[in-house]
Amino acid sequence: MALHFDQAEFDSRRDRLVIEMAERKLDAMLLFAQESMYWLTGYDTFGFCFFQCLVVKADGSMVLLTRSADLRQARHTSTIENIVLWTDRHDANPAVDLRNLLNDLDLLGARIGVEYDTHGLTGRSTRLLDEQLQTFGKIEDASDLVSRLRLFKSEAEIKKVKRAAKLGDEALDAALPLIKQGGDEAAILAAMQGAVFAGGGDYPANEFIIGSGEDALLCRYKAGRRKLNKNDQITLEWAGVYHHYHAAMMQTVLTGKVSKRHQELFDAARDALTAVQKTMTPGNTFGDVFDAHARVMETHGLTKHRLNACGYSLGARFSPSWMDPQMFYAGNEEPIAPGMTLFAHMIIMDSDTGSAMCLGRTYLTTEDDPEPLSRYGLDLITR
């Protein structure tokens, strides 16, 4: 079987989930997030673009409802023993199959938590699900349950993240020689993604972000490549990925002469990330981390050029995003605790001058100061 953790690790995760379900008085959980299924059982697929659900009962027993295309995938990549198929056909309603399965599991009238907040459950599927369950039992939104358990990484998971971070560094190693006058974004992107693959890594849960010139001010991937000029800027956001665990990085690299404005923006980004590192310790919250970033940006007169979030938790994620729900934004009371892998990004986009400057690293939180997972320091990179 293609499992990336031993049985003891999966047993520990199941036990944590069962304890949390008992505290919330849930008789069952309906898991629709692929991340939850992977974390709990190792099940590895992109088949969540169709309706599928992992039912977990209060005693820890599990049943997967999926399509025939994923039957062998589930058998080969997961610890799931009980797999039920719904049939592809015209006007199929897999929510009916799920209701019948829940009835067979003696869950009629039970208190059931549902993972609604996931790309694994579309709006249409949610409507079908609610139609079938509205009179079946007591249904409640438990979207945060597994995602919060996943926030705290085991030693086995930390090893995966550190391997991913090494691949992230190797991606930047491959890119830097190509960042120069006449350098092609296509070649840079290919080198970065190729380095991750060559190192035994995986596809990222979302595209690497690459943009130069005016496109360096964008925070998302877009189609289309260009070549660099003598004095240019290129913003890269990428992740090393190993067994779906991500370690993201972000960097604006300059070619040619460094402008005064670029230097000002870099100084602010470095100062802000340094302040964030000092705040990313037990006793503070995710909101405190954002506030530390915002104060530095205000001091540098850059409030209008910053974003309203400055990072998030990372872990094993699937398309369309490598971002976990816990984010650094104002008022987030989630406590910083040891064993989290957190990506902090200082993103400054000055549309007035057309200047970009971004600096981001992934950290492992500890009992004290966080551990940066990249061997690259907080330096302005010029070519």
Automatic annotation (TrEMBL):
Residues 13-151 form the Creatinase N-terminal domain. This is Xaa-Pro peptidase family protein. It holds the Pfam family Peptidase_M24. Residues 160-354 form the Peptidase M24 domain. It comes from Nitratireductor rhodophyticola. The lineage of its organism: Bacteria, Pseudomonadati, Pseudomonadota, Alphaproteobacteria, Hyphomicrobiales.
